[in-house]
Specification:
By secondary structure, the protein is an alpha/beta fold. The chain contains eleven helices and 14 strands. Among the domains are: about 100 residues, Nucleic acid-binding proteins (OB fold (Dihydrolipoamide Acetyltransferase, E2P), Beta Barrel); about 140 residues, Succinyl-CoA synthetase domains (Rossmann fold, 3-Layer(aba) Sandwich); about 45 residues, no CATH class. Strands 1-2-3-5-4 form a five-stranded mixed barrel. A five-stranded parallel β-sheet has the order 7-6-8-9-10, with helices on both faces. It has a four-stranded antiparallel β-sheet with strand order 12-11-13-14, with no helix packed on it. The radius of gyration is 61 Å and the shape is rod-shaped.
Length: about 400
């Protein structure tokens, strides 16, 4: 083939061909090295180089991947990466597109972390449905950490600043080393038994994956999940992630952040209380105004329902007049009847008969005076009493002559 007939490639075509060849040749590789020239851009992507005594290679780790790293790399860190080998066509630079990044020598621990995380996720320990709600206004707050930890001082300062009125109960325990998981579980059980707090802060300062490994314990994960008291985890720095963070009801980026999430700000509470008082006062005023309007309407209806007072007085005066007239008529009728009855009684009065010239003869019989009604009752032996219109006299008959009856 002559030089004239040979295909001439552009730089871009050549770089793309090299990139395709590399991608076909190297599917995924694990590479260890020291980070240099690390830069984290505002886009969230990381750019750096991996180097050792014999060479270096450019690396890029995009935002969707580096969010799972769990710590912020720095220049000089020894790391292990899983990456795809390729070529950055615009510059012709060979680079690694990193999928996974971990600290060097921590491969076994990280693999154990991922394995346990997958297991617990499958069992539903990370599900949002089982998360307990963190009380917005806790009556008391429990703290599980080491008494010597710097994180405890930060948490106490934050709680004293935000909510000095909330009591705090500290459950001391180891937070690092092989005995730490059992100690943390024991502290959780003590808090469960006492039931003296409404929320628990599980906190520890930052450190390496080895330092924080106690919070990746499987038994501790189950203890956190079974706790009846809501738990806020604040373990390590913002980039540190542990199994306890996934199981806890709420994860805070730092111990200080856990205190901020658990305790409401005092000034904010006062503002909320002021807003509630203002709203309550407004509701009360609205109710008073509404009831006052209702009262006015009822008063108006009542004024229409009742007759005019002047007319009522006229009616009362008329009823009094009618009552007086009726009473007068009734009294006059009683007087007339009395006069009539008196006249009848006078006609029946025996005294009136005597005054017309009659007399009545009474005989004494067994200490009782009886009127003599028949001539046969007269005799010369008895003494009779004669009553006249004026006066009376006792007489004894000298002779009785009986005349025949008519």
């Amino acid at each position: 083939m002559s030089e004239i007939s040979r295909e001439i490639l552009s730089v871009g075509d050549l770089n793309r061909a090299i990139a395709a060849s590399l991608e076909e040749r190297f599917d995924s590789v694990w590479v260890s090295g020291e980070i240099s020239n690390f830069k984290a851009y505002d886009s969230g992507h990381w750019y750096f180089s991996l180097k050792d005594e014999e060479g270096q290679i450019r690396c890029v780790m995009f935002r969707g991947r580096n969010g799972q790293v769990g710590f912020m790399p720095q220049s000089g860190d020894l790391v292990e990466v899983s990456a795809n080998l390729g070529l950055y066509v615009p510059r012709g630079d060979i680079q690694l597109t990193i999928q996974t990044l971990r600290r060097a020598g921590m491969g076994g621990l990280y693999e154990a972390f991922l394995k346990l995380k997958a297991k617990l996720a499958k069992e539903g320990l990370f599900d949002a449905e089982r998360k307990r709600e963190i009380p917005t206004h806790p009556q008391s707050i429990g703290i599980i950490t080491s008494p010597q930890a710097a994180a405890l001082k930060d948490v106490l300062c934050t709680l004293a600043r935000r909510a000095p009125h909330i009591p705090i109960v500290i459950y001391p325990t180891l937070v690092q080393g092989p005995d730490a998981p059992a100690g943390i579980i024991s502290a959780l059980k003590a808090a469960e038994k006492e039931k003296a707090v409404d929320v628990i802060l599980l906190v520890r300062g930052g450190g390496s994956i080895e330092d924080l490994w106690a919070f990746n314990d499987e038994k501790l994960a189950y203890a956190i999940a079974e706790s009846s008291i809501p738990i806020v985890s604040g373990v390590g720095h913002e980039t540190d992630v542990t199994i306890a963070d996934f199981v806890a009801d709420l994860r805070a980026p730092t111990p200080t952040g856990a205190a901020e999430l658990a305790a409401p700000r005092r000034d904010q509470m006062l503002q909320e209380l002021g807003a509630i008082m203002q709203a309550l006062s407004q509701r009360v005023n609205q109710r008073i105004e509404r009831e006052a309007q209702t009262l006015d309407q009822l008063a108006l209806r009542l004024s229409h329902a009742l007759p005019n007072p002047d007319r009522m007085r006229e009616q009362i005066y008329g009823w009094q007049q009618r009552l007086n007239q009726a009473w007068t008529v009734r009294v006059q009728s009683w007087q007339r009847n009395q006069t009539h009855y008196q006249a009848q009684l006078e006609m029946l009065n025996p005294q009136r008969t005597l005054e017309r010239g009659y007399a009545v003869i009474l005989s004494k019989d067994e200490q009782k005076m009886l009127a003599v009604r028949e001539s046969a009752q007269l005799n010369t032996e008895a003494i009779y009493q004669v009553r006249l219109a004026k006066g009376q006299a006792e007489v004894q008959l000298a002779k009785v002559i009986l005349e025949p009856k008519f």
